[in-house]
Amino acid sequence: MQPAQQAASVPAATAESLFTTTVERVSRLEAAEFRTHWFGPRRPVLITDMATYWPACRRWSFDFFAALDPGRAVTLETGNVLQGETALESASLGEYLTELSDAPASESLRSNERPLPAPGEAAKRYLSMFRVFEQFPQLRSDVDFSLLEAATLRQVYFAWLGPAGTLTGYHIDWVHNILAQISGRKRVWLVSPQASRAMYPSRKYDYRSTLSEIEPNTWDAAKHPLFANVRPAELTLEPGQMLFIPRGWWHRVQSLTPSISINAFGHDLSGLLLYQTRASLLDLLHHAGLYGRGNCTCHQATSSRYG
């Protein structure tokens, strides 16, 4: 995680000082097993085969979504709005997805490439946190998040559609999360909550989450020295695979190819009583201009990235 040009300025980390994260892989899980071994202890797990047979994995594509309602207005992120400048723009669903469909089929990002635009290259546009079932309720039966639904009291679902190179920077969600890959591939980095001090929580406001100041491709070793001790779990999410990210785990997600993903956020009772109450209060203060003004992931106080 340490940039080569900064290596000399960071003391060598001892084995005892490293924040090391690992993620187990399983083929399938029953609901009771998931609750006992993963959800309850808040342990992330990669589930490799449960989403493989979803109708979404057979049917969903950029062309499929573009044909549903090509004129529907959507909001796109431009670049990494969590650690960089907040930049959003409007487009029609058909226009954006046709652009993605027309991209070269070979477009991909090697796992060791920086997901940053080259000089003179426009930042990647990303349809993130798209409320797919509110827009297209007929698609709800194409996926099955019953693992999380059985363990939580309230859920919300988002689709993520974009080209290779899109980046959602390090953050923690105040809700439990299962991320499912429908098409394409994504690289995911996970860091334990125990390393939170070394992740340097940001003051930038984002609804129902905490952002990190750290972007590994550009981090400042003098400003963030503890990050040198962080060793994330790094994995590639393939089509038909699901990743459980418990509440409070830092994660960063990069598209290696053009990609369609869907995730489910779920609140358990403690999440509803503690975290959702706090999130709602902060959002009210933010919209009133009393919290996070001018330093947030939304352009206007009247709109939130999460709707």
Supply the key terms.
disordered C terminus; alpha+beta; globular; Jelly Rolls; five-stranded antiparallel β-sheet; nine-stranded mixed β-sheet; 307 residues; 7 helices
Care to describe what's here?
With 307 residues, the chain is an alpha+beta fold. Helices cover 19% and strands 27% of the residues. It has a single domain (23-106, 121-286), classed as Sandwich (Jelly Rolls). The chain has seven helices and 16 strands. Strands 2-3-14-9-16-7-6-4-5 form a nine-stranded mixed β-sheet. Helix 1 (31-39) links the parallel strand 2 and strand 3 (45-47).
In short:
This protein has 307 residues and is an alpha+beta fold. The chain is built from seven helices and 16 strands.
Helix content: 10-25%
The CATH topology assignment is Jelly Rolls
Q: What composes the largest sheet?
A: 9 strands, mixed
Distance between the termini: 33 Å
CATH class: Mainly Beta
Mean pLDDT: 85
> What's the Cα radius of gyration?
19 Å
Domain module tally: 1
Q: DSSP strand (E) fraction?
A: 25-35%
Uncertain parts: 1-16, 299-307
Backbone shape: globular
Number of strands: 16
Number of discrete helical segments: 7
Write the layout of secondary structure elements.
Blueprint: E1 19-20, E2 24-26, H1 31-39, E3 45-47, H2 55-59, H3 62-68, E4 73-78, E5 88-92, H4 93-101, E6 125-130, H5 132-135, H6 146-151, E7 154-162, E8 167-173, E9 176-183, E10 186-191, E11 209-211, E12 230-231, E13 233-237, E14 242-245, E15 250-255, E16 259-267, H7 269-287
Parallel strand pairs: 1-12, 2-3
Antiparallel strand pairs: 3-14, 4-5, 4-6, 6-7, 7-16, 8-11, 8-15, 9-14, 9-16, 10-13, 10-15
Helix pairs in contact: 3-4
